[in-house]
Amino acid sequence: MTNTITLDQIPEDYIRTFDKEGPLRILLLEDMPSDAALIKLELRKLEIDWEIVHVSNKEDFEEKYKSYKPHFILSDYNLPQYTGMEAVKMIRSLNPYIPFIICTGRVNEETAVACIKAGADDYVIKDSLGRLPSSIVGALDNKNNRIEKERATQDLKKSEESFRALAENAPDSIYKIDRDGDIIYVNRDVDSGSQQDMLGTRITKHVSESNHEAIMAAIEKAWTTKSNQTVEIDGDMSDEAARWYYCRIGPVMKDGQVESLILIPSDITEKKKAEIELKYLNERLHELTQHLETIRDEEKKRISMEIHDQLGQELTGQKLGLFWIQQHLKQNGQDGMDMEAITEKLQSLVELVTQTIQTVRRIAHELRPVVLDNIGLIPALEWHVDNYNTNHETQAHLNISVGNANFEKDLSTALYRITQETLTNINRHAQATNAYINFYKTDERLMLEVRDDGVGIDLEKAKKSKSLGLFGIRERIKKWDGHLEIKGVPEKGTSITVSIDLEKI
Are 89 and 147 found together in one domain? Predict the structure, then answer.
């Protein structure tokens, strides 16, 4: 079916842009409750607010589309007496702007291609639902770009007669170019030259060489297809002054032919840098999660072995001691029992029980020090340093100057874990003799400094290795907008300083 509905005919409630307030309304067509639950679980990873309505048949689907006014549709492919293909076609006959993703089991390539041709934005295999959040963001982005492009086209048509007057006062630079990309008009001076100097120069002269092919291809396509095109001009991340631009290119028509092109670059540098940073952080968080899972598994294995090897042996020893007393009493009776031997055995059992209690307490402390919850951060730090010095060659020295300050539970846990992790890293990597922990406060900030006299950290090497330990520390103090500073001097040691504004605590 050819869709002739235009953007102006679609109710605004059905269009969700990233800057629009309120949750993303999702309509889910799925006949299996278990699959619907898995999809909802994956949706928790979305970084935008959302809400969902779940239906399982055609009638409810069509009714909810009208009453709920969804921004996004997710649909199974095979449903009783209905298919995802039919759902796509129905929605596309009503609205071409709502993103539509098929979530299905195994599907052959022909069916997948047919769904895309029918109007689906993407399809996600249920065995790989981890891709769903990024697919949703991508579909939203694509639809928003389409809406933006169509609105730009409409605006361009409506303002054709008053173009020059509007251009002179436009917030963005506006270029008029010919088919070869030579500049015929520019509405203002730009960073790369004055209006007069720009005239007659090729547009590629003012962008990096890596973007020449893309921008010229967009110019040629806009000219030959008489349609609006978009292209992104990428900056160089290694250059702090580099800029990113989203360029809209549209034809100026005369007597049915393209006379020239209008090119409008919008500066999207902050957005692109934010996207790059977000992608980097997401990757690091994923790596950190995997790292924590590995640590957790190793910790479980260690504790399990300790319980089996030590605690198990101690309990077995107690059982054998009690069994000896039981057999002694059975064989000798009250009159013939050896009280001296029994007393000696009971004394050894008391010592063994005491040792078992100490083992249990030690294991519990290693999991989470009870003193941290019962007494507070400072005693917990003192306990940990004493325990560290008992079990390691590197000796830690603790200096606390925070008065009688009490800290919230989350902050106490974060500072304790940072100290614990830092001392662990010193023991593993620093080759240090001493470690110094200074916990103090200034008039404005709470400070935790851990330094050693070891080999000194190589900051460049640590950055390239994407150290998860340092990334983990940053994540722990992010809640309080904490600051992390790392210094390393070869053969003189490393210092790690965490500081938090007292007003944030």
Answer: yes
Closest to 5 in 3D by CA, of 18, 15, 19, 16: 15
Query: How much is the CA Rg of the chain, to the nearest whole Å?
Result: 34
Calculate mean pLDDT across residues 266-286.
78
Residue 394 has pLDDT above 70, yes or no: yes
- Residue 112 makes CB contacts below 8 A (sequence gap 6+) with 123
Q: Which residues contact 373 (CB under 8 A, 6 or more apart)?
A: 409
Per the confidence metrics, is the pTM higher than 0.70?
A: no
Q: How far, in Å, CA of 80 to CA of 103, rounded?
A: 15
The candidate with the shortest Cα–Cα distance to 424, out of 399, 391, 402, 456, is: 391
- Residue whose entry in the numeric block shows the structure tokens 């969804």: 70
Q: Is residue 236 part of a domain?
A: yes
**202 shares a domain with 76:** no
Closest C-alpha among 143, 323, 181, 171 to residue 262: 181
Structurally, the chain folds into a number of domains equal to: 4
Domain with 280, as residue range(s), is 269-367
Give how far Cα 183 sits from Cα of 164, 203, 255, 297, Å: 15, 6, 22, 63
Phi, psi dihedrals of residue 125, rounded to the nearest 5°? -75, 135
Q: How far, in Å, are 242, 334, 343 from residue 320 at the CA level?
A: 76, 21, 15
Q: Tokens 């504004």 correspond to what residue?
A: 501
In a domain, 316, yes or no: yes
